[in-house]
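User: Hey, quick favor. My workstation is busy. Could you predict this chain's structure for me?
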Amino acid sequence: MIIRDEAKALHLLENISYYRLSGYWYPMLATPKDNHCFKPHSHFNTAFKIYCFDRELRKLVLGELEKIFLLSMIVCLLNIINPGHTFKTKLTRLLTKYKMIDVKAMGFPDDWSEGDFWQ
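Assistant: No problem, here it is.
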């Protein structure tokens, strides 16, 4: 792999991590992939650009949906682990306390609290 700026590569490896970035090297590996040899003209910066694309694509796709998805996952897990939990009540109280929070911006539909899932 060609590394044109070693300081930048080291910085990215320290801050993003080797293991996270190495997944983006896969398209640049020669066949058979398990030999771990790069194709000619493979650049570290290309892998970083693929990483950046993936990060931005996830933000675009998940965006605000990620927030409601995570809250929904928490409720599902709590329903299984502790059916008597009070998370939904506490969430409703919190949103009532901070009325300026735009739940639509978080991905909630207008009638979210009326749905069976949140009852």
